[in-house]
Amino acid sequence: MAYNGGPMTEAMYYVLLALMHPNHGYQLMQAITDVSNGRVKMGPGTLYGVLSRMQKDGLISLAEDDGRRKTYEITPEGEQALRMEYSRLKSQIQDGKILEGGDEHE
User: Fold this and answer.
1) Predicted confidence (pLDDT) at residue 78 exceeds the cutoff of 90
2) How many other C-beta atoms are found inside a 10 Å radius of the C-beta of residue 70?
3) Inter-residue long-range contacts of 75-83, CB under 8 Å, 24+ positions, other chains counted
4) Neighbours of 36 (CB within 10 A)
5) Residue partners of 47: CB distance under 8 A and separation at least 6
6) H helix runs in the chain, sequence order
7) What is the pTM of this model?
8) How high does pLDDT run on average in the chain?
9) Residues in domain Transcription regulator PadR N-terminal (predicted)?
10) Is 25 helix (H, G, I), strand (E, B) or coil?
């Protein structure tokens, strides 16, 4: 089953961002906290559920499994999906500029 290209969950988005550099579980939890400037703290249960789903969807792959820990990396499909989501989020921010009062109607 492949990723359908719909809006991503926050967890998926930050896992992909953190996997722009291959990482394993504990490091990955720290990387997610880092790339979200401390806003997102992901526990092991959530993380491994998301990793499993994203691996099935082809967004990430196992780079290494030494038996003790698994190192994950983003796939080209995952990077494309991440860039599409980034673009979608930027559009939402742009659409929200009306809240700043800069769009006065005459």
Assistant:
1) yes
2) 17
3) 77/2, 77/3, 78/16, 78/19, 78/54, 79/16, 79/20, 81/3, 81/5, 81/8, 81/16, 82/13, 82/16, 82/17
4) 16
5) 11, 15, 25, 28, 29, 32
6) 10-18, 25-35, 44-56, 76-95
7) 0.86
8) 91
9) 20-83
10) helix
